[in-house]
Amino acid sequence: MKYCLRFVVFILFLMTGAPVYSFDIEMTDSEWITWPEYCKTRYAQLGAGKNPRFKKYASSSKQDKWIRILGWENYRGVQHFCTGRIWLQRAAIAGSEKEKSWAYERAISEFSFSYYKGNSDAPYYSELSSYLARALYKSGEEKKAYDILDHALTVKPEQPYAYTEKAKLLRYENEAKKAVEVLQLGLENVGNHSMNIHVFLAHAYYDLNDYKQAKYHSDQAYSHGYTIPGLKQKIDGLKSAQ
What we know:
This protein has helices at 2-17, 29-32, 37-44, 60-70, 72-75, 78-93, 97-117, 125-138, 142-155, 161-172, 176-190, 195-207, 211-223, 230-236. By secondary structure, it is mainly alpha-helical. The radius of gyration is 19 Å and the shape is globular. The model is unreliable at 1-22 (pLDDT under 50).
């Protein structure tokens, strides 16, 4: 009974929180701060966002800024990408497989709208592709997830998101060597400054017991601004990494 009640409450929360076409979604403060400014701006100008809390994001100057940066075709539907991000976060913390499945389904619906209705020249295209691929993979559509990531690597080779997402999936499948190959290609195309690629390389080399390379990429990640201490603590204590 307790489980059933919790599940019903969760489903009602999801159903009222993110209708696909209205962008009428209620968020927690912690969810709100994860959004980039263009999401906040679009949200503030549509339905649920029209209240004093979001006033500074609803100005015409901010809208003009993001239309100029993203292009109107991408900006006018960006709310679906933004909403999908929230669903993906909620799926990760859902308390049961049924709850996760429901949230991933909604995430796929939202991401797919932006993915198929938008343009591949959108600055967020690689990030969108990565999130959509993650939701698909978690929903059992592994091949489709990899196809989307490979397409993103072709269209936006200079952006890190698809490299790190593909590497994450490969590591999940115990394919750390393949993950390293993907990430090394990412360093070539994105540049040695990519903090996230170095983070994933450190983890992948750790999986392969190559602790010297793991430490090298860990050090590179922290030198480029990575701040989460867990990676450093895991690697620096290994004598073989010295």
